[in-house]
Backbone:
């Protein structure tokens, strides 16, 4: 009887490989309310979320509602934040992309108006408003590709904070271990040929094992050359 390789065991969802999502903060998204009116608030705290690589700002609004938002560079406790149509063009404020001037850096862009924000949410990232045309707005994403959004999709002005987090090295394997464990990632990772034969198809020096795999192989077992027509050096 066979044994599932490690990638298949991870997919089972056991606590060994499960992310500590119970420690995550609430979703840092725009509220589905107040899409057409301007609402003012104040940043009362800057938090670290183990489920994100960017800082999270806790904003308290005039109606005493609180909301978690992805922090922008330059934001601090006590700074005022405005959300909605008519907000001024200051970093940290949220406006529809159709109201933002061309050339402005933005992040946390909605894909569909009211979904809370889907694009450009990683630390240090920002997109650029490229052009406006009727009810659509073209935005240049960090990947250098251009994407067209509905002009009523909201976005935050500025650059996501925490862009220099990778400047500080992990220095120790323990620090990297805890960083990966918070996300439910496997660490350390080794070459599959360095594993034992019981752990992977290529383990145990890979002696006499075919490196091609059927296109219909189950998830986890589909490793190596997928449905290769030929292998080896072409002569």
Residues:
């Amino acid at each position: 009887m066979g044994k599932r390789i490690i990638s298949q065991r991870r997919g089972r969802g056991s606590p060994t490989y499960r992310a500590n999502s119970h420690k995550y903060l609430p979703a840092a998204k725009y509220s589905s309310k107040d899409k057409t009116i301007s609402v003012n608030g104040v940043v009362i705290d800057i938090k670290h979320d183990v489920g994100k690589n960017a800082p999270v700002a806790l904003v308290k609004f005039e109606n005493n509602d609180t909301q978690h938002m992805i922090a922008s560079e330059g934001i601090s406790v006590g700074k005022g934040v405005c959300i909605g149509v008519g907000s001024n063009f200051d970093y940290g404020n949220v406006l529809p992309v159709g109201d933002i001037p061309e050339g402005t850096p933005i992040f946390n862009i909605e894909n569909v108006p009211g979904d809370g924000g889907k694009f450009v949410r990683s630390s240090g990232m920002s997109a650029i408003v490229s052009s406006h045309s009727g009810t659509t707005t073209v935005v240049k994403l960090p990947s250098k590709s251009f994407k067209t959004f509905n002009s009523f999709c909201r976005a935050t002005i500025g650059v996501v904070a925490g862009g220099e987090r990778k400047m500080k090295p992990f220095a120790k394997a323990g620090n990297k271990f805890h960083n990966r464990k918070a996300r439910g990632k496997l660490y350390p990772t080794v070459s599959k040929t360095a594993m034992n034969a019981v752990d992977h198809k290529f383990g145990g020096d890979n002696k006499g094992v075919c490196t091609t795999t059927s296109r219909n192989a189950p998830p986890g077992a589909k490793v190596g050359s997928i449905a290769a027509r030929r292998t080896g050096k072409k002569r």
About this structure: The chain has a mean pLDDT of 87. The longest strand covers residues 39-47.
